[in-house]
Amino acid sequence: MKRIGFVESNRAGSGYAALRAARALGLHVTFFSSGLARYHATPDGTEVLESCVDEFVSCPTHELEPLLAAVKAVDARRPLDALLSVAEYEVVQTAEAARQLGLPGPDPAAVRLARTKAGQRRRWAESGVPGPEFRVVTTVAEAVRAAAEIGWPCVVKPVDESSGTDVVRCTRPEEVVATFAAIRAEPANRRGQPRPAEVLVEECLVGFEVSVEVLADAGGVRVLGVTDKTVGGGDRFVELGHSFPTALPDGVRRELEAAAVAATTAVGFDFGIAHVELKYTAAGPKLVELNPRPGGARITELMDLAFGRSTMELLVRQYLGEPVADLPAPIRGAAIRYLTADPGVVASVRGTAIAAAVPGVREAVVSVEPGGRVEPLRVNEDRFGHVLATAAGPYLAGRIAEAAAQQIVVTTRRD
Questions:
Q1: What is the tens place of the pLDDT at every residue in 38-48?
Q2: Which of 16, 284, 311, 318 has the fewest CB atoms found within 10 Å of its own CB?
Q3: What is the DSSP letter of 382?
Q4: Three-state helix/strand/coil letters over 61-116
């Protein structure tokens, strides 16, 4: 029996799907984690851990040295055949640990570069990959000056977070000051790793957003597909919907794919699946960011439904050293629409059963109930439910998901 190690997990979509794929392949699964409580607190978390993991190893996964020691101890008892992470904050140290054990995986230097938005921006600028005008700053005075030079509105963001954390569209200096202060007030990111002193100030791109899901291997970078995205939240950037594959015209799709491949190649990401976010502007595609791991927010699940096979199985097999030959092609469309409501205390929830009964709907889920709270829409985690649908094509799947989501009404009252 082959043995695979996972370092933490995305708690929605790709993470649990990767664990299930490993179990379906008959692998012995070791799960390295700094704590399991956050998994048990999420839907399906307990079931996945109990049914898909053979061995748990507790260690500080957000730091290389203790993780490496734990991985080497496991490997010394019975050698691992693969080690990977699909969790945003653990990909760098996992890539380094895999490299030190001689296991397949991406170049750690490329993953480290891809994990910092400032590093990506610098490399793309050097390589001629299209992106927003930007400045990397370390003081509030530099941030205000950068915003004035770039022009209003601008975007201020940390260089190492995910899910839209502390990413704000600013329209005047006071907002830049407040956002910069909020970023610098937190000495650590969401996983307890020290935050860099750098803060990114950049042009606010005007255009529609997509993500391009790519697979890198020795043969280069290939496109798995393009995901249409809906983003909201006012001056925040919260993902409110996805459809796969894209319904865009072929010419536009090819432009976006070419830009994503160029961006991936420029940072040196050479193994595994990456999630590349772009906006299509009046000047054509421009990069938002590259994530050196599979897409979150259920994107890989949409891909699975569209392909009729497991994307994470493909990834796990690649980490086991199996060559990736032909890539899957979509046979249907899939879409998800997330639920939002006015912030406040939940007074009532209606329409979930109606939404679930709409033909084509596979899931209609609401995670709040009367007495609970709806938070202001600042990050992806502030969404409180979703509708997921499939159809013959992505446009129809999206319309079905939207129609079903409109049946769910969550009313709130202010405290």
A1: 999 988 899 99
A2: 284
A3: G
A4: CCCHHHHHHHHHHHHHHCCCCEEECCCHHHHHHHHHHHHHCCCCCCCHHHHHHHCC
**Contact yes or no for 89/266 (Cβ under 8 A):** no
Per residue in 332-374, pLDDT tens? 999 999 999 999 999 999 999 999 999 999 999 999 999 999 9
The topology under which CATH files domain 3-103 is Rossmann fold (3.40.50)
Task: Tell whether domain 133-203 is in CATH 3.40.50.720.
Answer: no
- Tokens 């050479």, residue? 270
C-alpha R_g of the chain: 21
CATH, range 207-331: 3.30.470.20
How many secondary structure helices (H) and strands (E) does the chain include? Answer: 14, 19
Distances in Å between the Cα of 137 and the Cα atoms of 116, 123, 173, 195 are 14, 17, 15, 14
Q: Give the whole-angstrom CA distance, residue 240 versus residue 325.
A: 34
Of 274, 259, 313, 312, the C-alpha closest to 107 is 274
Report the alpha-carbon distance of residue 215 to residue 277 in Å, rounded: 14
Q: Which fold has domain 334-413?
A: D-amino Acid Aminotransferase; Chain A, domain 1 (3.30.470)
In this structure, are strands 373-374 and 134-137 parallel, antiparallel, or unpaired?
A: unpaired
Q: Whole-prediction pTM value? A: 0.95
**Taking the domains of the chain in order of start, what are their residue ranges?**
3-103, 133-203, 207-331, 334-413
Q: Is 327 helix (H, G, I), strand (E, B) or coil?
A: coil
Residue identified by tokens 């009313």 is: 411
Which among 86, 87, 111, 89 has a CA at the least distance from the CA of 270?
111
